[in-house]
Amino acid sequence: MSSFLAINLVGTLRLLRYKHSIHHVQLRTNDLQILSPLILQLKEDNPAVHAAAMKRLQITTTDSKERVPATPKDGGDGTITWDIEKMRLPIYNRHSSSLMLQLGGGASLPAIKRTSPDAIGLLWLKDLVDDEEIEVDIPVIVGKDLSVLRQNVLTDFTARTHEYQVVGHFKTRIRLDSGLDEVDYYTLCFALFQSLIFLAQRIMRASLKRKLADMHTKPSKSITYAI
Questions:
Q1: What is the rounded radius of gyration, in angstroms, for the C-alpha atoms of the chain?
Q2: Residue 164 half-sphere exposure, CB side, CA atoms within 13 Å?
Q3: One domain, residues 138 and 194
Q4: 204 shares its domain with 149
Q5: Which among 112, 162, 211, 223 is placed 20 to 30 Å from 127, CA to CA?
Q6: Tell me: the pLDDT tens digits for 73-130?
Q7: Is the pTM of this model over 0.70?
């Protein structure tokens, strides 16, 4: 499908959503691809973080999440590796999205409630160059309130105002793909088709409502028979 057609489909769908408030569809603007195994290198012996990493790794963005099913390999020297061949994560707003690698956490008994991760790796996507494959070094942190830290860029100011500790780094290769892929084109076409149907239904209902109102307001004609 040509770029011209894609742009027109996006524009038409946005116009329908704005003017008629129908069939809300979230369109991704990028895809983040993880292209090589994830390697965690812990700075020093840290049994708690090591156990959390061996227990569970969840990869999330602001818009989606994936649990890594592969069993990690313990290198014995503070190195843990997940053999990920390829993973694709949809991004809907890259300038406010981050890639987060969560270690540990998950469901716990009783009551099957969710628990916070023990450590997180955080990479913000706003500074990445589209369509460029790069190797990244993602700091892994532990702290008292990871739910707050995950919303912050880790800078010198963050270190002065929040209590956390860098315990290691993730290394892998990633690429931020720009634009819509083939799946998005089909999704967009289907969403546009549904939007047009909903719009036609609304117009037909409004027209029928007006006709019924006219029937009730117009005086009925009486018929006189001559005898």
A1: 27
A2: 30
A3: no
A4: no
A5: 162
A6: 998 888 999 998 788 888 888 888 899 999 998 655 555 555 789 999 999 998 889 8
A7: no
